[in-house]
Amino acid sequence: MPEFEVSPGVTLSYAVDDFTDPWVPAPTVLLLHGLAESREAFRAFVPALARHARVVRLDLRGYGGSTPMPADHPWRFDELVSDVVALIRHLGVARLHLVGGKIGGTIALALAARHPDLVAKLAVLGGPASLTNMAGRTPGWRAQIAAEGVPAWVAASNAGRMGSRMSPEALDWWTRMMGRTAASTLDGFLRMVPSVDVTAEVGRIQAPTLVVTTTGSGLGSVAEVRAWQERIAGSRLVVVDNDSYHVAASDPDETAALVRDFLFGA
Predict the structure, then answer these.
(1) Distance, CA of 221 to CA of 113 (rounded, Å)
(2) Range 191-195 contact pairs with CB under 8 angstroms and sequence separation of 24 or more
């Protein structure tokens, strides 16, 4: 897979899926995954999007094929946003469509607000504007990861993340994929998570924006999501009937179709 050095000793890995007609100029769609995941989180989106655009799936700093971060890495949310900007520059595109799930959606919100010239359209899938309400959860999660390992934590926390309708086979796949995350990366990342809040920035977003959430999301009620979504001029909110908070994983076909139609037309 292609990669580039974003800072000394830190390499970011990404995948490119492109099934567009070679003789027709095609847009680029950049997909940003969530906590404890990798680019494989958007595997189901490739068939829906790659006939219309060059699809780039990034492994965020510390995740997937990117360089694992040591336990003492000073995680900063702004650095994650800067990493994505660096990738866009590396790809050599002036402007692209940006899609993010969970905290990948939060990163996408911040990037669209801070760099409006880079984002043509924005889709946020189960991504909260604020993660400050995670402060009560992350210490216990970190303790479990330290005691039992990442796969055990993923399996124990999957009910809220994936909802009650996901098949055992799918849950097993997600647990194995997320369980490959280095414990050192995840521990530091979880220390940072409760400090993330871009609510004050979303009103600066200029790109046409789609926000997707679920009826029973544990990351925020529909009313809470609507409160910040409506601050984005001309944005659209779609609510999927499910008790998950990772809508791109629990309802991949429906969510991928929503994104496809939003980016390229029905």
Answers:
(1) 23
(2) 191/75, 191/138, 191/142, 192/75, 192/76, 192/77, 193/35, 193/103, 193/131, 193/134, 193/138, 194/131, 194/132, 194/133, 194/134, 194/135, 194/138, 195/77, 195/131, 195/132
The confidence score (pLDDT) of residue 160 equals 87
Instruction: Report the candidate in 71, 80, 120 with the shortest Cα–Cα distance to residue 102.
Output: 80
Q: Return the structure tokens found at 40.
A: 């494989």
Mean pLDDT calculated for residue range 132-159 = 95
Instruction: Quick: pLDDT tens for 215-259.
Output: 999 888 999 999 999 999 999 999 999 999 999 999 999 999 999
Q: Determine the Cα–Cα distance for residues 107 and 117; give it in Å rounded to an integer.
A: 16
